Amino acid sequence: MQYYNEEETRALRAAFEKEVLTWSKVTSRRMFGCPAYVADGRLFAFLVTGGVVITQLRRSDKQILARDHQIEPFKAGERVIERWTKVTVADPQAIGRIMAFVRKSYQTALERD
């Protein structure tokens, strides 16, 4: 199953990386065939076609995010990973609207042992 198409997601990736790759201890690598972002070795987000998967978001933050954005759990084939939140991003220019949540995931990743 293909989760990421570079042609369709290039503008989103560029906008996302413009901010995220400036954060301390962040590196990028491929996971699930997608650009993935880790903080000090811990996954906090990755891109999929048409959206961002945020992996370290607290339940209360997911509820707040859901008020203004279409979200769903990430599906890896038949497996549903409830902890990981897929956020639809139709307009790459609007990526700023979810970056506070991506930053929270990043901070949580840094705090984990």
Concise account of the structure shown:
Helix content is 34%, strand content 35%. The chain contains three helices and six strands.
Largest sheet: 6 strands, antiparallel
Mean pLDDT: 95
**Portion in beta strands:** 25-35%
- In CATH's first tier, which class applies? Alpha Beta
Q: Could you give the count of β-strands?
A: 6
Order of helices and strands: HEEEEHEEH
Poorly predicted sequence stretches spanning 5 or more consecutive residues: none
Share of residues in helices = 25-40%
Number of helices: 3
By helix and strand content, what is the structural category? Answer: alpha+beta
What is the C-alpha radius of gyration, as a whole number of Å? Answer: 13 Å
Please give the CATH architecture: 2-Layer Sandwich
Distance between the termini: 32 Å
> Strands of the largest sheet, in order across it?
1-2-3-4-6-5
Shape: globular
The tally of structural domains comes to: 1
CATH topology call: Yope Regulator, Chain: A
How is this structure best described in words?
The chain has 113 residues and is of the alpha+beta class. The protein has a single domain (6-111), classed as 2-Layer Sandwich (Yope Regulator, Chain: A), CATH 3.30.1460. Helices cover 34% and strands 35% of the residues. The protein is globular and about 35 Å long. The mean pLDDT is 95.
